[in-house]
């Protein structure tokens, strides 16, 4: 708390590796609330998290803080906000909801005002707000947005601040200015990838053609509305450009197919300027009067952004095809002369596809860090903090880094590292998979409670459970799937408390069960991880390694892009069972590479690791552990 308060009071950034059990949420919020009172011009605190489960923890924490000390207004006010689709249900083409359908303007205003005041009166979970709004016939999302303008703390997803296409509309609607805001980022180890995802766009021939059809439909509606002739001409010009651009891009993509050959999993890097020149040439040759791309881009941007047509709900992606095309164009224009973004070309079916891949998340996060009144980035696996300072663009003299030790006894969470198994691709075999299953079976046999088993991918998960004869009869199996719903996850987690039968939960590292999930009450007796979730070879990964190596040197480039994130995913999964001081669990790593110096040096120094040479030894060590800690 002292470190966080010092950082915020001095308008600095704090990057904190803080293990489970320290009370990160309470410490960061209390420090931010205290600092906000001392810093002139600070109006709000934003608590950002990528997991909805964390929202409840923030609300409960503020309820407790309000009970300890209240201010003149009766306590700290908070708005808990999630996506509009989740709060309102189905939205119309122009993203309007049906929450207040049939309600008069007068009644609408009164109901919204009443709900807004109810939200601000005391901390409320978003689920409570939705239930109240539904009962009163008003919109939970719009009422929450209005309440956010007056709230002290707002709980949001990362996207509201770190994805520009979202933040540009979201923050102004809540009267939020980053310069007068303190920002707390929870589970910040996920932030670099989330920022990259926010700028991942795709261009296909099909998408361009669909965008042209939308423009043609939009032109017809504008004609029907008797729009000005100048506006109609601009839309017609844009349709003409898209028709030429479709042909130009199709030819360009056909010429690139030689780069990927016949392998359907192959891809290749292409130049941003190369593709942009195709689009520019189509623009300049499609108009009767000579008009440069630069002079026409502003009107093109405006039209693509305002197109509203019926969208097929089955289509992948968000918004109209015109909006998706605009997002891709914006990325090209922004990074035309920068090596911080790569374009990856591959073939999907018979059609070429180009994907924009941000290589440097700091081009986004550094602006937020320097622009805010102060910030805290925290997680149990921000290891090492120096790596995340580099990746997020924290300026050394304006930031502090802290690593805190776990408050729990290390002998209650020993880590067995098995030396006879690996998931390394060149060493995979039936005998290796057999030994992996034997190690797990030994742990299950000796465990008095539930066990979580984390694979590096869904493919490896599938191989593991190709047969389940190795699972003792005393265990039931629950498996994660890629299409699992939030309710499915909740049902499985609630079932772990059933004393009737032990559960072997088989999931993936970095998935729904390995991060942001509270396995409270000591429901897990063990956690087992298989292998290292290293990124597979690809053009994107090659570009990332090369880019980070050019910035930080070859050794750190490899560490930052591949080895350290993989090790941190293992650590994140292993941390699931230990949530309180009285919890105990044995942790098993089925990967001999973590005994090698190249990977073992990436682990925190305070871990107790014990090598296990075979399944029998794993079974004996597990049995001894639970004899000591039953």
Count all strands and give the number: 18
Number of domains: 3
Query: What is the name of the CATH topology of the largest domain?
Result: Rossmann fold
CATH superfamily of the largest domain: P-loop containing nucleotide triphosphate hydrolases
Helix percentage? 40-55%
> Mean pLDDT across all residues, rounded?
91
Cα distance spanning the termini: 35 Å
So what's the overall shape?
globular
Explain what you see.
By secondary structure, the protein is an alpha/beta fold. It folds into 3 domains: about 1-200 and about 360-405, P-loop containing nucleotide triphosphate hydrolases (Rossmann fold, 3-Layer(aba) Sandwich); about 200-360, Fumarase C, Chain B, domain 1, CATH 1.10.275; about 410-630, P-loop containing nucleotide triphosphate hydrolases (Rossmann fold, 3-Layer(aba) Sandwich), CATH 3.40.50. The strands form 3 sheets. The chain has a 7-stranded parallel beta sheet with strand order 3-4-2-5-10-1-11, with helices on both faces. Strands 14-15-13-16-17-12-18 form a 7-stranded parallel beta sheet, with helices on both faces. Helix 5 (about 105-120) crosses helix 7 (about 140-150). It is globular.
Structure described in brief:
The protein has 24 helices and 18 strands.
Task: Sum up the structure in keywords.
Fumarase C, Chain B, domain 1; 630 residues; globular; alpha/beta
């Amino acid at each position: 708390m002292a470190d966080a308060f010092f950082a915020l009071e001095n308008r600095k950034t704090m990057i904190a590796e803080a293990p489970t059990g320290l009370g990160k949420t309470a410490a960061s919020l209390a420090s931010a609330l205290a600092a906000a009172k001392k810093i002139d011009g600070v109006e709000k605190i934003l608590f950002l998290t990528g997991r909805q489960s964390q929202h409840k923890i923030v609300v409960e924490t503020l309820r407790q803080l309000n009970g300890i000390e209240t201010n003149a207004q009766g306590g700290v006010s908070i708005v808990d906000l999630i996506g509009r689709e989740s709060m309102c249900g189905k939205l119309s083409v122009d993203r309007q909801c049906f929450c207040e359908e049939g309600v008069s303007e007068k009644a609408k205003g009164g109901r919204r005002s009443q709900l807004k005041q109810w939200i601000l009166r005391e901390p409320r979970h978003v689920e409570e707000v939705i239930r109240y709004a539904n009962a009163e016939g008003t919109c939970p999302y719009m009422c929450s947005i209005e309440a956010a303008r007056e709230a002290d703390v707002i709980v949001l997803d990362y996207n509201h601040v770190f994805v520009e296409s979202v933040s540009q509309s979201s923050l102004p609607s809540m009267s939020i200015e980053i310069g007068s805001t303190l920002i707390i980022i929870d589970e910040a180890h996920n932030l670099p990838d989330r920022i990259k995802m926010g700028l991942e766009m795709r261009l296909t021939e099909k998408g361009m053609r669909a965008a042209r059809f939308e423009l043609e439909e939009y032109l017809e509606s504008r004609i029907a509305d008797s729009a000005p002739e100048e506006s109609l001409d601009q839309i017609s010009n844009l349709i003409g450009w898209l028709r030429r651009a479709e042909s130009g891009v199709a030819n360009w993509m056909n010429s690139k197919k030689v780069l990927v050959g016949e392998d359907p999993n192959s891809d290749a890097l292409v130049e941003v300027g190369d593709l942009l020149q195709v689009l520019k040439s189509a623009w300049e040759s499609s108009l009767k009067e000579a008009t440069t791309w630069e002079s026409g881009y502003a009107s093109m941007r405006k039209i693509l952004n305002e197109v509203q047509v019926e969208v097929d709900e089955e289509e992948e992606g968000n918004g109209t095809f015109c909006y998706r095309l605009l997002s891709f164009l914006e990325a090209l224009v922004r990074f035309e002369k920068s090596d911080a973004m790569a374009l990856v070309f591959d073939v999907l079916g018979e059609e070429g596809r180009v994907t924009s891949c941000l290589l440097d998340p700091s081009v986004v996060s550094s602006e937020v860090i320097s622009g805010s009144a102060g910030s805290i980035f925290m997680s149990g696996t921000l290891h090492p903090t120096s790596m995340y300072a580099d990746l997020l663009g924290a300026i050394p003299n304006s930031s502090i880094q802290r690593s805190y030790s776990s408050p729990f006894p290390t002998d209650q969470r020993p880590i067995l590292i098995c030396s006879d198994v690996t998931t390394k691709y060149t060493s995979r075999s039936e005998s290796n998979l057999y030994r992996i299953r034997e190690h797990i079976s030994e742990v299950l046999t000796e465990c008095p409670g539930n066990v979580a088993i984390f694979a590096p991918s869904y493919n490896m998960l599938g191989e593991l459970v190709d047969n389940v004869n190795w699972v003792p009869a005393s265990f039931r199996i629950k498996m994660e799937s890629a299409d699992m719903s939030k309710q499915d996850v909740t049902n499985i987690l609630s079932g772990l408390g059933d004393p009737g039968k032990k559960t072997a939960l088989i999931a993936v590292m970095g998935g729904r069960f390995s991060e942001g999930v509270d396995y409270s009450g000591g429901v897990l007796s063990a956690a087992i991880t298989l292998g290292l979730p290293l990124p597979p070879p690809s053009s994107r990964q090659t570009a990332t390694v090369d880019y980070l190596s050019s910035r930080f040197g070859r050794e750190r480039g490899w560490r930052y892009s591949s080895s350290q994130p993989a090790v941190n995913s293992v650590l994140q999964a292993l941390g699931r069972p230990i949530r309180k001081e009285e919890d105990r669990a044995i942790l098993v790593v089925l990967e001999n590479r973590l005994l090698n110096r190249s990977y073992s040096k990436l682990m925190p120094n305070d871990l107790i690791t014990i090598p296990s040479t075979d399944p029998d030894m794993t079974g004996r060590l597990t049995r001894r552990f639970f004899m000591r800690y039953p």
